Structure formats: structure tokens, C-alpha cells
């Protein structure tokens, strides 16, 4: 909540499907959760902040806890938010199955985020430059992403940089396992992408900012400080400004005919 995100994609919630805890957070009153029927394993979620005008929601929840799909409107624009958590083996098979479900569900601007449990580019996404994940799994996972024309937001802005989202103490290895993707046709909306510091989780958060002219934060209403009107100097200044304004209008505005009637500017009491 300290990141003040409007939409949060969460993985590894580890809530039991039989007895899920109630998630109560006044900053994120709307949440969609996929809890595994097999017990306290996996688990994904999509949360919306109270300042996000999300409407007409539809969701698709995975009984295995591997994905959560939520579709709805923010302002007049439709979005589909997807939170996924892949297993640590056969990731390509899992993501193909998830995307098969997604193709019939998605609508509007697609945002996919999650823990893929593999580095997409071992050369840049691991501290050693190598990975134990089979090359075939990596290639087929990238092919699945390409089938929806999904682009890695952080890598698109930092094509040759190194940064990581997970540290394995037993292997003394840093890897980038967590991603947010946008379709190629929506990449013009991407304003920024960052990897945040690791705090209470063993993974670093990934944050993106999208431009959206259709929904703006609620603005505070401006109110006049009425005590200013009791100040003689301020009151005198306001009277002078009004008199000068109407004097200028007198010189600038000439009588004109409109619908056969002569209209003159009304100056009121000056």
C-alpha cells in the first residue's frame, strides 16, 4: 500500500480455497482472488484502490490458483488485468493453457503481470548469465508471449540493463522472475517501468505507469477563504480591480445589433 498503486497484481497469496481469510484494507476495498482447492498453495489476486473508478467488472478465477482475470472499465476505457503464477517446471505448458483461457475472456487494453518462475533472457536476467531452465522451456514460453504480442515493459525501456526481482540464498543467485507485459499495440501508453526494493516479500515489486486521459484523480473543490473579505486592504483592492475591469469593457465593447434590437453592455454600479 505504500507504493500507492491503483491496480495491484499479486502472486503467491497462499490462501486456502476452503477457508480463505477475509482481506480487509481500506485503501484496496475491491479484490478478486483465485485460491487453490489443493490447499494453501499458489494463489493470485487483482486489487483495485478506492480511488480507481473501476466499473462493470467480470472475473475468471482459476481453481488451481494459477491465474486471476478481471475485466472492466476505468472511465470509458475497457481493461483486462491478469495476474499469473507459473510453476517452477514446464512453465511453457502452464502459460499456454492460461493464454488459451485468456483469449476468449480479454477485452480492451490487456495488462499481464506475474511471477513466471524463469528468466526470459538468462544472459541479462541472471547474475551469472546462465540458468538451469531448459532452453526448450524458455523458447516455448517466449513463443507463448509472442502469440499475444506481449512486450516486457521493463526490458523495453532498459534493453541492456541488469536488475533482478528475486535472490536465492542457497544458490547465491539473483534473477528477474517477475514481469509486467503489455501488447505491442499498447506500448505507447507506457510512461515508466521500475523494479522496487525488496521489503516484506522475498520478491521485488515491479511497477509501471500508464497514461490514461480517460480517468483522472478526483480534484478537491476550491473554496474562497471568506475571512479575506474582512481585510480592508484586500476589499479595497478587489473594488479597484472590478472598477478597472468594467471601465475597460466600456471602451472595448461597442453597441451592436442582434435580432433587430440594440444591445448595450450593462455596467451596473461602478
From TrEMBL:
CDD domains: L1-EN
InterPro entries: AP_endonuc_1, Endo/exonu/phosph_ase_sf, Endo/exonuclease/phosphatase
One annotated Gene Ontology cellular component of this protein: nucleus
A Pfam entry, by short name: Exo_endo_phos
Keywords, comma-separated and alphabetical: DNA damage, DNA repair, Hydrolase, Magnesium, Manganese, Metal-binding
GO molecular-function terms, A-Z: DNA-(apurinic or apyrimidinic site) endonuclease activity; double-stranded DNA 3'-5' DNA exonuclease activity; metal ion binding; phosphoric diester hydrolase activity
Gene Ontology annotations of biological process type: base-excision repair
Site positions per UniProt: Important for catalytic activity: 178
SUPFAM superfamilies referenced in this protein's UniProt entry, alphabetically: DNase I-like
Name the record gives this protein: exodeoxyribonuclease III
Species name: Leptobrachium leishanense (Leishan spiny toad)
